[in-house]
Design a protein that fits this description.
With 238 residues, the protein is mostly beta strands. The protein folds into two domains: 2-58, SH3 type barrels (Roll); 67-234, Alpha-Beta Complex (Fumarylacetoacetate hydrolase, domain 2), CATH 3.90.850.10. It is 9% helix and 44% strand. The strands form two sheets. Strands 1, 2, 3, 4, 5, 6, 7, 8, 9, 10, 11, 14 and 15 form a 13-stranded mixed beta sheet that branches. The protein has a four-stranded antiparallel beta sheet with strand order 13-12-16-17, with no helix packed on it. A hairpin with a 2-residue loop joins β12 and β13.
Length: 238
């Protein structure tokens, strides 16, 4: 099942509505967020239907309780939940005007896949994640401004995470293509849950599968993960 947050083009909303994508339609579901849908067992009453071409998809989890970014299933670092931005977002809207060093060197992106925690500490679905980095800043502020998430969350019964492919395009030109390694999502989940509590909407972010450097202001970036979709983001001009 492909789940999303969305709003009709003629009815903009920050958080949007929960939806289930069925072909070229989006069916609105009676849940406030994907987190609440997962808590309720993944089922909800259906409301109106909308043509997919007449809606905007949003970040499927706008305010995750926690984000853990793994480089392998044995270690992770926390990331900033306030940095989440959805499909079509301008990644510099909440930043100051880019510095000269940024204009000269550009941004870096790391292409990743993220698991979304549902009920009972289980991974309820997967989505694409663009991990934006600014080489002009010292760590950890180099990675604190934007995490692109979306466009949909695909439930495990419809997605085989073994051998997932990622494709990165900048201004419609392919810049990177890679296949996922043998990341153990169950082991990552177990590590994240050890000694603490996971909440619906928590993100477990898998290792970077590809990196693209030198992305300049004015660029249009797409991360495609077949089976999940295309997550597009823009970098505002200077």
């Amino acid at each position: 099942m492909q789940l999303c947050m969305f709003h009709p083009l003629d009815h903009p909303m920050e958080r949007g509505w929960v939806g289930r994508i069925d072909g070229d339609r989006v069916i609105q579901l009676a849940a406030q967020t994907l987190q609440s849908l997962f808590t309720g067992g993944g089922k909800a009453r259906e409301h109106a239907e909308y043509p997919l071409a007449e809606v905007r998809l949003l970040a499927p989890v706008l305010h995750p309780p926690a984000i853990r970014v793994f480089e392998d299933q044995t270690t992770f670092a926390f990331a900033n939940p306030a940095a989440i931005v959805g499909p079509g977002a301008d990644v510099l809207t909440r930043r100051e005007v880019p510095s000269n060093s940024l204009l000269q060197g550009g941004l870096t992106i790391l292409a990743r896949v993220a698991g979304v925690i549902g009920a009972d500490d289980a991974v309820a679905g997967f989505t694409a994640l663009v991990d934006w980095r600014d080489p002009a800043r010292a760590a950890p502020k180099d990675r604190d401004f934007a995490l692109g998430l979306g466009p949909v969350v695909v439930t495990p019964d419809e997605l085989d995470t073994a051998g997932l492919e990622v494709i990165v395009r900048v201004d419609e030109s392919e810049r990177a293509r890679a296949t996922s390694n043998e990341f153990d999502w169950r082991a990552a989940r177990d590590l994240a849950a050890k000694g603490t509590r996971l909440y619906p909407g928590d993100l477990l972010v898998g290792p970077a599968l590809a990196a693209v450097h030198g992305i300049s202001p004015g660029s249009f970036v797409e991360l495609e993960v077949p089976g999940i979709g295309v997550l597009d983001q823009v970098v505002s001009g200077a």
